[in-house]
Amino acid sequence: MGVSAKDILSGDIQAAARLMRDLDDEIPSAHRTLKTLYRHTGRAYLLGITGAPGSGKSTLVDCLTGHLRQEGKTVGIVAIDPTSPFSGGAILGDRIRMQKHTLDDGVFIRSLATRGHLGGLSKSTLDIVNVMDAMGKDVVIIETVGVGQDEVEIVKVVHTNLVLVVPGLGDDIQALKAGILEIADIFVVNKYDREGADRTKQELETMVSMNTYGEGEWVPPVMATVAQTGTGVHELLAEVARHWKFVSREENLKRYRTEKAKVELMEILKKKLIEKAVDDLSRSGVLDLLLRDIARKHLDPYSVADKVVDHKFAFHLRKESGKGKANRKNRP
Amino acid sequence: MGVSAKDILSGDIQAAARLMRDLDDEIPSAHRTLKTLYRHTGRAYLLGITGAPGSGKSTLVDCLTGHLRQEGKTVGIVAIDPTSPFSGGAILGDRIRMQKHTLDDGVFIRSLATRGHLGGLSKSTLDIVNVMDAMGKDVVIIETVGVGQDEVEIVKVVHTNLVLVVPGLGDDIQALKAGILEIADIFVVNKYDREGADRTKQELETMVSMNTYGEGEWVPPVMATVAQTGTGVHELLAEVARHWKFVSREENLKRYRTEKAKVELMEILKKKLIEKAVDDLSRSGVLDLLLRDIARKHLDPYSVADKVVDHKFAFHLRKESGKGKANRKNRP
Predict the structure, then answer these.
(1) Mind listing the pLDDT tens digit for each residue in B162-194?
(2) For B87-232, where are the alpha helices, taking DSSP H only?
(3) CB nearest A274 (choices: B91, B254, B270)
(4) B43-249 has which fold?
């Protein structure tokens, strides 16, 4: 028996954890439950926190979670940074600090590194966010390193994304320039007590000011925090609330929801299309032949992919066998 | 006029740089050239270097490149770490140090962060590696952060992958355990002059010793380096050479080539399948309708993806229009 949608909707933590495991294991009933749950999603506020390992993301998540809990809000945390204490990484002190939340029923933490994959961390991030949303979590915080296309896609589905920058990395800001503006709703210069913090803040402000924003467009503010001591977190939360209000405007919400639908559909579609193609090719025994020929450089993978996409393989094989090559299939 | 395969095969750096730009811009003639070039690939030795930002990857790449150049070997470098000096990131000192290689004709450096995308860094990594291979580079070094599925896929196509670990991150090793063994041919504890280096080395060795290896399987050695001063790099190169010899054995090479063919085909196929699906859906105007209905929670993206994969949309729309909904397409 799989996990029922009803159990998830009632907020059952055990059931949610099991459903997430089942989704990882690709159990069909779990996918059916997810389909049913989908129409109950869209109520949670999704907050992204992006920053390099060591930028203090988890300390900030810890801080924000504390504040949200005080306001009586329930929180879901999805960590896809392998060095995050939420994922089992980081130093012992961090982990002990997090314990207070792991023991709090109002906080549901799910790490995407626990399954032992270095890659594929974001494989089912959207699914997990949707389960937490359907569970009734008021806020779902998604912690990402911000590297790789997958993570950038995930950032597109959050209502508000905080980008953490550590002081003294001026050149990095240059390097990330174009990409970073694309994904930041609010910049946070964390560890603001460090040397060079002012300069970093100024550089970010200059970067923002040099960008062109249309009327009614959001201009990302640059905030300063020391998450370790809580300095600046109150002000940061005020900006988050301001952005929340901005996103909640009818016209923005409509655009956001369509964008989210697009990212979700594309992510799921990508996965299913390649699965189907591999299934089809494997079942007919074509895949092994193709790989052998590519490995031998008799074929190139670009042309093969073109043919697969255009469903030309039945024809291709027929033609070859017509030339007396029917027997080339030499698998056991 | 596009770049000809002949220009690339002659090792023309200008032509190669232009072809890579054209590939990024998705210019059709560039893809045709790539198809032609494919059969000339497979001669370069592909060396991966994976490690978190700050683990000293680029200093090590610098060191190794110097050694390889002294041996008269030409080198290609592909950097997909946005904080790497090869990608324009990192501190000024690093960048100046790299200059000696950028001025060397025998070294071709291509950064995948220069196009300003925070994500999508690895979009065409394999294409770029193939171009460098076809150019006749003896060794192509691929620098990755090792986060995300894309990067793990790329690591699968290298002959030898070095995984850099920084001392004092004991807990991180625990977190990465399963994934890290999967992708490491050689472990390198870099910054070995730091406190806790011995312990980190021991932990890695214990981890390796607890893993089960079959007969004739490679057991990853754990090396210690201080790339900054060059300490241990000679010994590391000896291990790289030993692994190179191991990979070059007939049975291993065959397996490697098939695996590489598979990763290449899958990466290209994934991209083309989703492009085709989006094209088809967009052209018929179905995509906008679907996204609207998903955004409104009238449909769930999981069921929609199933239908797209099974090509059920022509039928679906016909049925709907039969019910008098032919006019529901309300796009401009």
Answers:
(1) 988 877 654 445 445 456 677 889 999 998 998
(2) 92-102, 125-135, 149-156, 170-183, 197-210
(3) B270
(4) Rossmann fold (3.40.50)
